[in-house]
């Protein structure tokens, strides 16, 4: 339908939509984040849910204490190699459809601790990240922007066809391998189905 005609009909109280739009509208306005934080970025995440910024305005009404009641994981802070298996295990316990926001430089690339032996250089080595938030730490407004970006991504998802999201594809994985503590590093060091190292061109 022409957007101009749709706008005119809405002014008269007539709303024309599709099943996919209604389905995605309901999902994007009821995203419930998982209640956990890893480092200082968690303070900014907590602030975003308080009265001044009020993340509940966008449908993230309450941070759920159980991964079985949440569909958004906000990885807020430094992911150490000791914590990485627990983060992946929590993600696996979340029901589909589920999403991941990597909040802060540490969650994206290791941040100022990148050269440390005990810090994971990005949670995207094990989990599929939907939105990245740069900064150290990013302000609550940045988290709000990332949340709106995720809502736009959800609203544009197709219910059918080759571009449909992971939870509508029977062949797509819902759980990812939990890394184990090896002799010198995590085993496996990354999930090859999610992350591939960049090719160096010299």
Terminal Cα separation, in Å? 52 Å
CATH topology label:
Rossmann fold
Average of pLDDT: 90
Beta strand count: 5
For this entry, give a set of tags.
202 residues; two-stranded antiparallel ribbon; 6 helices; 5 strands; three-stranded parallel β-sheet; Rossmann fold; 29% helix; alpha/beta
Would you kindly provide a brief summary of this structure?
This protein is α/β, with parallel strands linked by helices and 202 residues long. It has helices at 3-11, 19-28, 41-48, 84-93, 105-109, 140-155, and strands spanning 72-76, 99-103, 131-133, 180-181, 186-187. It has six helices and five strands; from the N terminus they run H-H-H-E-H-E-H-E-H-E-E.
Plain-language structure description:
The structure is a single chain. With 202 residues, the chain is of the alpha/beta class. The chain has one domain (17-156, 177-187): Rossmann fold (3-Layer(aba) Sandwich). Helices cover 29% and strands 8% of the residues. The protein contains 6 helices and 5 strands. The chain has helices at residues 3-11, 19-28, 41-48, 84-93, 105-109, 140-155, and strands at 72-76, 99-103, 131-133, 180-181, 186-187. Strands 1-2-3 form a 3-stranded parallel β-sheet. A two-stranded antiparallel sheet has the order 4-5. Strand 4 and strand 5 (186-187) form a beta hairpin. The longest helix is centred in the C-terminal third of the chain and has 16 residues, at 140-155. The chain is globular and about 65 Å long. The termini are far apart. The model has no long low-confidence stretch (mean pLDDT 90).
């Amino acid at each position: 339908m022409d957007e101009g005609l749709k706008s005119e009909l809405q002014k008269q109280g007539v709303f024309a939509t599709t099943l996919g739009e209604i389905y995605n509208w309901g999902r994007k306005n009821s995203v419930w984040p998982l209640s956990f934080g890893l480092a200082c970025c968690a303070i900014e995440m907590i602030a975003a849910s308080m009265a001044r910024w009020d993340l509940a305005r966008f449908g993230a009404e309450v941070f759920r204490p159980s991964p079985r009641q949440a569909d958004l994981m906000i990885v807020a802070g430094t992911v150490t190699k000791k914590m990485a298996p627990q983060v992946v295990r929590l993600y696996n316990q979340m029901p589909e459809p589920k999403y991941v926001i990597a909040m802060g430089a540490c969650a994206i690339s290791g941040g100022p601790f990148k050269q440390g032996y005990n810090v994971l250089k990005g949670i995207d080595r094990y989990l599929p990240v939907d939105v990245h938030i740069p900064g150290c730490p990013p302000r609550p407004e940045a988290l709000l922007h990332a949340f709106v970006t995720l809502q736009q991504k959800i609203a544009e998802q197709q219910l059918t066809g080759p571009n449909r999201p992971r939870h509508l594809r029977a062949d797509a994985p819902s759980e990812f391998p939990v890394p184990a503590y090896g002799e010198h590093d995590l085993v496996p060091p990354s999930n090859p189905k999610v992350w591939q190292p960049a090719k160096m061109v010299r």
